[in-house]
Amino acid sequence: MFREAEIPLLYYSQFISEADQREIDDIVEGLDDGVLSGFSWHGVPVGEHARAGALRYYGSGTLENEAGGGAILRRYLKASMQSVRVMENLLTSQTFDRVVFHHGIYVPQGAVGDVCRKFEVPVVNWNLAYRERSVLFSHHDTYHRSMIAEPSESWQTLPFTERDETEIVDYIKSRRSGSNDWISFQSERSASQDPFEGLDIDSQKPVFGLLTNVMWDAQLHFKANAFSSMLEWLYETVDYFRMRTDIQLLIRIHPAEVLGSVPSRQKVSDLLTARYGSLPETIKIVEPDDPRNTYLLMERCRAVLVYGTKMAIELPCLGITTIVAGEAWARNKGFTVDISSKENYAELLAELPAIPCLTADQIRLARHYAHYLFFRRMIPLGFAEKRHRLTPVAYNVETLQSLLPGKDAGLDCLCNGIMNLTPFVMRAGAEK
Questions:
Q1: CA distance linking residue 107 with residue 153, whole number of Å
Q2: Rounded-to-integer distance, Cα 423 and Cα 352, Å
């Protein structure tokens, strides 16, 4: 594609010498296993990027029990450091006004972004969004971090009409089947079917939902986390609910654990069995391959406990109280119960089942943010086409004329954001 457009191609090999390679090899081989994940080099947390990449490679939340895990982590660490050296030499020898690249984490993208920021070159990261035919672009860093750090003024000051509210509620309801999304792990069940059927739920006791994340996905460090990992939070929650006989816990394991592009080799259900053996009848598990609809399950719960899932945004839009224990985009937005420490979490659990319902203002606030996220921050591209699960997107562009300014509002928004460093936010009504 780049050759056809006569765009010059640069290769890693042009910007790293054999001496550089030997230096990196010697450094990595001299490190103890225990310091690899936390290792920094030239001011870049190369170890964190390497660990995230290795976990994704294995489809696991830990490398401890993976054959060759240590060796693979060292390979990723070398690759991360090689990327740092390449980018340092590139940015020292050439000038770039902007750097635009995919995702912003893992190897090499995470290391590339850190070096660009060190050289004060504006970074733009992108990924496919959730809504079909749309993409998510962010300035400075991966959207995993930028969406959390985004100030509330960026969306609270935007208009939010009754039409917008209807639009976002309709869209969230459509996510039960994923009919308007690039990729979905849900299957819609008819309204006449009871999602609790066959789970042996006691109708006389309050039910609290719990949604897991995929163990390996985007394993990044966030300073605000009360728990070291999703698994630590999960164990803490199960430990508590095992002591209570008056309330019930319904654990919905993420369907992407078996249906995702990288199926997880570290399965939550196996971890729970290994730790507890059997669980009391007040704790129920819905396996990832269970066809029950996650949305319909959670709508039947008194409140829902989450760590970092995006459903922390959607559930409050439906009036469901949501407790956030990790890093989620919904955190600190005013419509979730945010956990600040383990002690704070223990105090909240001790008060169950008493927990305030969402107010009408909180529900509207959640819908305001959700509309901003799904319809303003997720930029539609008219020439993008939905295909199938493994290759969800294709681009239907027949002539370059169709890409000129004014031809596609979404593309105009992206180009303006990259060139002028303006926010990647669609103007109200621009898509229509």
A1: 33
A2: 41
**If we measure between CA atoms, which residue out of 317, 312, 302 comes closest to residue 354?**
302
What CA–CA distance (Å, rounded) separates 123 from 142?
9
Mean pLDDT of 199-205: 95
* Residue 331 to residue 338: CA distance in whole angstroms: 6
Q: How far apart are the first and last CA of the chain?
A: 31
Instruction: Compute the distance between CA of residue 317 and CA of residue 366 in angstroms, rounded to an integer.
Output: 5
The answer to whether the beta carbons of residues 209 and 250 sit under 8 Å apart is: yes
| Nearest alpha carbon to residue 209 among 129, 312, 128 | 312
Identify the DSSP state of 96.
-
Per this entry, what is the length of the chain?
432
| Cα–Cα distance for residue pair 206/353, rounded to 1 Å | 7
What is the Cα–Cα distance from 137 to 146, expressed in whole angstroms? 10
Three-state secondary structure call for residue 362: helix
Q: With H, G, I as helix, E, B as strand and everything else as coil, classify residue 284.
A: strand
The whole-model pTM stands at 0.90
The model's pLDDT over 164-194, given as tens digits with 9 standing for 90+, comes to 999 999 999 998 877 777 766 665 544 447 8
Q: What is the pLDDT of residue 191?
A: 46
Q: How far apart are CA 427 and CA 277, in angstroms?
A: 53
Please report the sign of the dihedral spanned by the C-alpha atoms of residue 344, residue 60, residue 298, residue 388.
positive
Helix, strand, coil percentages for the chain (3-state, nearest 5): 40, 10, 50
Q: Mind listing the pLDDT tens digit for each residue in 267-307?
A: 899 999 999 999 999 999 999 989 899 999 999 999 999 99
DSSP H helices, 175-280, are 230-241, 256-259, 268-276
